[in-house]
C-alpha cells in the first residue's frame, strides 16, 4: 500500500529535504506541500493524504489550528507534528488538537520513514515514556489542560469502560508500554492490545496518545508534581 503524504512547513528547504527522503521510498508518495496552516487545510481537503507532516510555528494559521481543522474536516488524514525542541510547549497542544504524535525535526531518515508507516497504520509515534514526560511537564500550564466544566461530558464517557479497561487507560496515561501493562496486570500483551482497542472504540479516540490526553483532561491521571 502506498502512503500518501502532505508536507507542511514554512521553510522551502525543509520541505525539499523531507521530500528527497520520502520520495526515495517505494511505498511513500509525496502528494503535495503547503507553506502555512491555511494552505495545509486547503491542500488536505483537496488531496486527502494518509499522513500530514505538520510544522508548528508558521505565519498566519499555525500548525496547531491547522491540525485541529484537518482532524475535523479530513479525519482519515493523520497528523505527525514536527517540533524543533524535545519539550516544545506546542507539542502538547498539537496532541490535544488531534495529532497522532510528534517527532523532532532532526529525526533520522529511517526514523521518519518508520514513523510515517506507524501513523498510517493508525498507531501513535510518541514513545510511551516521552508521552508521560510531555504531559507531566505541560498539562498544568496550558489553557484547557486542567479538568473543567467542559470536560464533564467526556468524564461521563468513562462509565462505558469496564474496571479492567480503566486500569489499562490509567497505565497508558502513565506511559507504560503494552509489555509493561501486561506485567502489571498479569495478562498477555495480546490481551492488553485488545483492551486498548476497545478503549479507543468506546471513547471514539484515534490512538493511545489521545487516550493519554483524555485521561489527564478528565482528571483520571494527575500530572506528576515538580
Q: Your description of this structure?
A:
Helix 1 links the parallel strand 1 (3-8) and strand 2 (28-34). Helix 8 crosses helix 11 (208-217). A five-stranded parallel β-sheet has the order 2-1-3-4-5, sandwiched between helices. It is built from eleven helices and five strands; from the N terminus they run βαβαβαβαβααααααα. Mean pLDDT is 84; it is low at 142-147. It has 226 residues and is α/β, with parallel strands linked by helices.
* Share of β-strand residues: 5-15%
Question: Can you give the helix content as a percent range?
Answer: 40-55%
* Cα-to-Cα separation, first versus last residue: 45 Å
Average pLDDT figure: 84
Q: How many helices? A: 11
Query: From N to C, what is the helix and strand string?
Result: EHEHEHEHEHHHHHHH
Low-confidence stretches: 142-147
Radius of gyration: 17 Å
- Order of strands across the main sheet: 2-1-3-4-5
Number of strands: 5
Annotation keywords:
globular; 226 residues; five-stranded parallel β-sheet; 5 strands; single chain; alpha/beta; 11 helices
Topology of helices and strands:
Elements (H helix, E strand, L loop, with lengths): L2 E6 L3 H12 L4 E7 L2 H11 L3 E5 L7 H11 L4 E6 L5 H9 L3 E4 L4 H12 L7 H11 L13 H6 L5 H11 L4 H8 L3 H15 L4 H10 L9
Parallel strand pairs: 1-2, 1-3, 3-4, 4-5
Helix pairs in contact: 2-3, 3-4, 6-11, 8-10, 8-11, 9-10
